[in-house]
Specification:
Order of helices and strands: HEEEEEHEEEEHEE
Distance between the termini: 70 Å
CATH architecture: 3-Layer(aba) Sandwich
Amino acid sequence: MRRGILNVIGFVGILALAGCGAKGEVVPINLVPVVQTSTQKPDALVVIVPFEDARPEPTHLGTRSHIMGGQSYFEIPGGKHGDAVSKAVADYLKGKGWNVMLVKSADSIAPEKPDVILTGKILALSMDAQSRFLRTTEMAAKSKIAVQAQNTTDDSNVRMTLNGAGSQNVFWFDAEDAEKLLNDVLAESMEKLTTDTKFEHKMLRLK
């Protein structure tokens, strides 16, 4: 009987440690969306300007609520979410075969002589996790990014909103699971940018 009680106490203790963690800590999340490579090789040069972070609360990506109370915070290393998202978009489009260049600011566009200038506004980007006693940790990620592609030849524009959302339940919380979920959501949302558009005479058009 005593052994059974000790086993239960030990099991509960392990669960508490797994769900508690260091409250108030920052959990880094890197944006590296997985890309299904493409053979598409458009000649047009697309220059991407760092995106604007227009979220109501731009400080953190979200929070993880612990079993025993308290919260940890998900955050992109460096804290510059607009720069991180624009780089993730650039890496994704390069993986799709696009000729892409990421510049530091709008002022540095001119020397590159781009065919298309891609700008964006982050409307939503979040990663949240809720750990529950004797239950799994529920994770949820969401992204909403408004993008505009300006064709320099005729000053026409292509505008679209890229939406993505996903959730996952895990028994043992691991920051890598949260990072993968958010990157999967980002990749899902960015897919629309390549599947719903096409290049014509070095200009980006909606299909």
